[in-house]
Amino acid sequence: MKILLLGATGRVGSHLLELLLKNEHRVTVLVRDELKLTVKHPNLCVIKGNTLSISDLEESLRDVDGVISALNTDGKNTLSQTMKLLIPLLEANKIKRIVTVGTAGILQSRVEPTILRYVSTESKRKSTAAAADHEKAFTLLESSLLNWTIVCPTYLPDGPITKQYRTEIDFLPIDGKSISTGDTAYFTYQAFFDNKFYQTRVGLSY
């Protein structure tokens, strides 16, 4: 399978790139800085560009079967602006499958289930800018025709793959405190190929 990976140089994205290549998938990555990408592999196609460029996205999507995005927010709505450009291109090219790494802030609150965690009393965030950008991206995916899944990890320290974690649709698992970058990548990889998380958010924690 050929997969476009966005955010390949990030903390979760680098784990995802390793997993995809290890399992013999062909991977296209779209990166702004090629020097941050230390991996070389015959199945890896590197495109230097920007996710906010339609032409760069069009080139990156050539012949791919699906998309995994581990893009971070940067306080400038880059994530939601990318999704605004990407979704119509996916629909036009009949590429249905996309899995993105979001944040536990866009899951439903347990104390106030009609609202999202990041705007509820459940949240301890000092700034909501990143979560708000993730929410915009979620809203765009929710109104699309795509087969999307948003993986929503809680506090995300660097760490290895253990394959031991809990998941819950639309909510963070009870008393979930953290999840490693490695396990977040591993679950995201598994979720891409598993259709049981069709058009939903999945809370992820230990």
Give a brief rundown of this model:
This protein is an alpha/beta fold and 206 residues long. It has 5 helices and 8 strands; from the N terminus they run βαββαβαβαββαβ. α1 crosses α5 (181-193) and α3 packs parallel to α4 (129-142).
How would you describe this structure in keywords?
206 residues, alpha/beta, 8 strands
Molecular structure report:
The protein is of the alpha/beta class. It has one domain (2-205): Rossmann fold. The chain has 5 helices and 8 strands, in the order βαββαβαβαββαβ. Strands 3-2-1-4-5-6-8-7 form an 8-stranded mixed beta sheet, with helices on both faces. The two termini are 30 Å apart.
**What's the helix-strand series?**
EHEEHEHEHEEHE
Q: How far is the N terminus from the C terminus? A: 30 Å
Strand order of the main beta sheet, please? 3-2-1-4-5-6-8-7
List the total number of helices.
Answer: 5
Quantity of strands, as a count: 8
Shape: globular
> What is the rounded Rg?
16 Å
Give the helices and strands, then pairings.
Elements: E1 2-6, H1 11-22, E2 26-31, E3 44-48, H2 54-60, E4 66-69, H3 78-92, E5 97-101, H4 129-142, E6 147-153, E7 166-169, H5 181-193, E8 200-205
Parallel strand pairs: 1-2, 1-4, 2-3, 4-5, 5-6, 6-8
Antiparallel strand pairs: 7-8
